[in-house]
Amino acid sequence: MTPNDQGTIIVNAIDAREKKRRKRELIVAAVVFLVIITLTWIELKYLGVDSYFFLALFNLNFILVLLILFIVLRNGVKLILERRRKVLGSHLRTRLVLVFMCLSLIPTALMFVISTQFVQTSVDYWFKNQVETSMETALDIGQAFYADSLNDLEHFSTNIIGQIRKRNFAWGGKGMDSFLQEKRSEYNLTVVGVMTPKRTEQNWHGRKDIEKVWDETKSRINWGNLEKNPRFWSLIWPGAASDYAVGVMPVDEGKTGYLVLVRSIGKDTMFKLDRIVRGLDEYKKLRTLKRPLKITLYFILGVVTLLIILGAMWFGFRLAKELVEPILALGKATERISKGDLSVRLEDTSNDELGVLVASFNRMAGDLEHSRNSITDANTKLERQNLDKEQRNRYIEAVLDNTAAGVVSVDSLGQISTINKAAASMFGVSAQALIGWNVRTLLRSRVEGELVGELVTHFQKSPEAPWKREVAVNIGGRELKLLLSAIGLPAHDSDQFGFVAVIEDITELEKMQRMAAWREVARRIAHEIKNPLTPIKLSAQRLQRKYGKQIEEPAFSQCTSLIVKEVEELQNMVQEFSAFAKLPEVMLAPGHIDPLLQELVTLYKNSHSKISWNYQRMNDIPVIQMDSSALKRVFLNVMSNAAEILTDKDNATVTVTLEYKQDLELVRIDVEDNGPGLTQEERSRLFEPYFSHKKGGTGLGLTIVKSIISDHRGYVRANSPAHGGTIVTVELPVV
Questions:
Q1: Helix (H, G, I), strand (E, B), or coil: what is residue 242?
Q2: What is the mean pLDDT of the chain?
Q3: Residue 130: which residues within 8 A CB-CB, separation 6 or more?
Q4: Cα–Cα distances in Å, from 447 out to 350, 406, 681?
Q5: Which is more confident, 727 or 99?
Q6: pLDDT grade for 449, boundaries at 50, 70 and 90
């Protein structure tokens, strides 16, 4: 399986090196199997277990088996490593190898068990005691037969010699000759005769073919020993036609002569008995090798079994590789397709089912490539459209996020679908958290009246008509004045509708409008009141100087003094009105606010010693753009208000804290007292003109403070913490 330059994977393509390697493996495997089988046959056929050559061949067989085992184990380890590395096709190859191994292992193991039982039973049967006893009994019977034959000859010899002496036959005479012939017939003797002391035959009766047997036997007789120890001598002699029992009996210690008797005992009797003896000896010798013989047979069976199993495993490896290669080609091609390479094709020269599968795969890959090209073209168009839409959406989002007005869109279910930062800030909740909220839930606790119901009713009657309304909203304890403008968004697939609302915070605008109106009022009041106040004051003072000594009535003096005092208060009020109506323009310049605050705190420590004045600077304070005189007026007003509130309070404390907020790039000043604090209404209207909770206050001081801080592009607010008191916070931007 190899890829070419055009992205085509060739199935079952084997290069020259791979062919050579496979051919070499097949030749080596065949030679090894033949050598093992041949050597095993030689060991069993021609060699004994005690032969050195047998041991050498045994070891050679063992080494060859180990070689085959090594090859199989190497393939197995390679397969295991491929499986752990999750190589494509390793699981299928493993299954095929296991199947072949099981198919060979089960019957081979069964054959091995049966064969070992057969070997054990056979060997045990071979070496049973009955076999050895039978062979020994046969040997005893043969030996007893020989002994009986020789004993018969000795008995015949004694009987013949006794009768010769009893009948007084002349030794070697005619009477003795006929007597011997008679006894030859009676005793069924093959040869009967007499040997003279000089060892020559006399009165000899027998077949001519026995002469050669007698000549060979006579040469083996120790005649001298017979003369010294006269007794019956006998032996069994094998002949060509039969075996013979030969007996020689000395007469008168050999001085008279010797009686010779020969009797046939059957053909090959001695040879058969000798075979029994040799067989018994070999059997006894082989019995000592019973255990080694079993081990040898077991080993041979084990070698054959192992060869069958290893051969099946090796064949399984080979067959698995042949079967898996086409599947691997399909797998690799599929993997390349999954990675986007749809140009891959399979090339197979076979005409079997695999060729049909390859053709189907190639058609599928071609269809996928064509479809992907079409989808790519369509996707390119969609991407361009989406890019244009995304750019337009980003432009709209940028406009919405940077506009001061809040924008909220609500779907047909009454849920918020989009909201910009300005709108979320107005409601005191993050924009992301408000997505999906029901607009009724959002406005129910913040807007008075059935605003949502009125809005829904309006769009039900006139879906395309705009709607506008000013509403008062309470958010976080702050009263805001909002201008709501909405327009309906009818749904395309139903009668339901949503809407888009634009929310404008006109709280500050209304305050500025009121402040401008009050400034105009203050200017006119100051103009109308200022002119008559001076003549009134001067007239009262003149009356007091001219007629005070003449008129002794106390009422006159009190009335003129009261007129002067009230006129002076009116003049002070006119001055405040004038200052409010004509606030001087601030002159901003780089400066440090820290010395200004320290100076004011020191001033109030001396003037209001009953109050504990504290000053804290939290960190290094940078330079800011400031008008020192205007800011001095601001903090004089704030500290004076705190001092007046704490006039009759024990343990009165005022703390001035200066801190630089680096992340916000502003300087923060907190003036905190431990007075009674502010109500919710006071907090919302504290900086409005002519609102004051002090007796005789004009309500212009904090309004002027807010105006000065606004000219510094800063912020001022007042809060009452949970532990009581009031905190006035001023925030000024850093240069």
A1: coil
A2: 74
A3: none
A4: 82, 16, 17
A5: 727
A6: very low
Contacts of 705 (CB under 8 A, 6+ apart): 634, 637, 638, 687, 716
Burial class of residue 730 (count of CB atoms within 10 Å of its CB; 0-12, 13-18, 19+): buried
Angle (nearest 5°) at CA 620 between 618 and 621 = 100
Contact by Cβ (8 Å): 634, 708: yes
C-beta separation of 321 from 78 below 8 A: no
Least confident range of 38-52, 159-173, 295-309, 458-472:
38-52
Residue 162 corresponds to which tokens in the numbers above? 């006794």
Dihedral sign (CA 39, 44, 45, 47): positive
The helix (H) or strand (E) run that includes residue 654 is: strand 653-661
Q: In the prediction, which pLDDT does 14 show?
A: 41
Q: Position of tokens 């780089």?
A: 590
Instruction: Give SS3 for 168.
Output: coil
Beta bridge partners of 258: 195, 250
Classify residue 304 as left (phi > 0), alpha (psi -120 to 50) or beta: alpha
Measured between its terminal Cα atoms, the distance across the chain in Å is 75
Q: What is the CA radius of gyration of the chain?
A: 70
Is 660 strand, coil or helix? strand
What is the 3-class SS of 469-508, one letter each residue?
A: EEEEEEECCEEEEEEEEEEEEECCCCCCEEEEEEEEECHH
Q: What is the mean pLDDT of residues 385-407?
A: 79
| Distance between CA atoms of residues 1 and 18, nearest Å | 11
SS3 content of the chain, % helix, strand, coil (to 5): 60, 20, 25
730: which residues sit within 8 A by CB, 6+ positions away?
A: 634, 635, 638, 668, 669, 671, 709, 714, 715, 716
SS3 annotation, 32-53: HHHHHHHHHHHHHHHCCCCCHH
- Token duo for residue 231: 């007794």
Say if residues 312 and 168 touch (Cβ distance below 8 Å). Answer: no
| Percent of the chain clearing pLDDT 70 (strictly above) | 67
- 121, burial (CB in 10 Å: exposed 0-12, middle 13-18, buried 19+): exposed
Chain CA centroid to CA 92, Å: 22
Neighbours of 672 (CB within 10 A): 19
C-alpha closest to that of 667 among 597, 613, 605, 586: 597
Q: What are phi and psi of 11, to 5 degrees?
A: -85, 135
In angstroms, the Cα distances linking 359 to 7, 263, 329 are 16, 99, 13
Q: Is the pLDDT of residue 614 over 90?
A: yes
Q: Are 269 and 142 in contact (CB under 8 A)?
A: yes
Nearest-angstrom CA–CA distance, 592 and 280: 133
Pick the closest to residue 581 from 520, 642, 510 (CA basis).
520
Measured in degrees and rounded to the nearest 5, phi and psi for residue 625 equal: -85, 120
CB atoms within 10 A of CB 378: 10
Residue 11's pLDDT band, with cuts at 50, 70 and 90, is: very low
Question: How does pLDDT run across 514-558, given as a tens digit for each residue?
Answer: 666 566 566 556 655 666 766 776 777 777 777 766 676 777 777
The greatest distance separating any two alpha carbons of the chain, rounded to the nearest whole angstrom, comes to 236
**Residue/partner pairs of 58-63 with CB below 8 Å, 24 or more apart:** 58/299, 61/36, 61/303
| 580-609 pLDDT tens trace | 555 556 688 899 999 999 999 998 888 888
